[in-house]
Amino acid sequence: MKIADLGDFNDPVLLFGGPYSNLQAFHALCNEAERLDIPPERVICTGDVVAYCADAEATVQAVRAYGCTVVAGNCEKQLAIDSDDCACGFDENSQCSILARG
Q1: Average pLDDT for residues 44-63, to the nearest whole number?
Q2: Would you call 69 exposed, middle or buried from its count of C-beta atoms within 10 A (0-12, 13-18, 19+)?
Q3: What's the domain range around 58?
Q4: Is residue 61 in a domain?
Q5: Structural domain contains residue 67
Q6: Do residues 63 and 75 make contact, with C-beta atoms less than 8 angstroms apart?
Q7: Is 2 within the bounds of a domain?
């Protein structure tokens, strides 16, 4: 992870929350950015690229290929330190805890 100065934006910026491994949702977002004439340089993801949906690896590859800025979310931070879960503090046997460990 690194700190980057994105500079000043004078044109519209598309800021979105994590795709959570939902490849189809990420592709829909890219289509919307294109429709709005917002290039990847002005698209910012707030992190959590991977999480509970089915296409984690494909979503990571798609985000990288697209070239938008990604802010490290809790999922990225926990993956970087090889954690057993996302550190969201879910109750031990809750569905979210089970999915996060997966």
Answers
A1: 87
A2: middle
A3: 14-101
A4: yes
A5: yes
A6: no
A7: no
pLDDT, mean of residues 18-41: 95
Secondary structure class of 93 (helix, strand, coil): coil
Residues 64, 46, 101, CA angle at the centre, nearest 5°? Answer: 85
Q: How far is the CA of 19 from the CAs of 5, 10, 23, 56, 60, in angstroms?
A: 23, 26, 7, 9, 10
Its pTM surpasses 0.85: no
72: nearest Cα among 18, 32, 14, 25 = 18
pLDDT at 78 over 90: no
Residues whose CB falls within 8 Å of the CB of residue 7, separated by 6 or more in sequence, listed in order? none
Calpha distance 27→8 (Å, rounded): 26
- How many structural domains compose the chain? 1
CA distances from 49 to 3, 5, 8, 37 (A): 18, 21, 24, 23
Contacts for 43 with CB less than 8 Å, ≥ 6 apart: 13, 14, 15, 16, 33, 66, 68, 69
The phi, psi pair for 24, rounded to 5°, reads: -65, -40
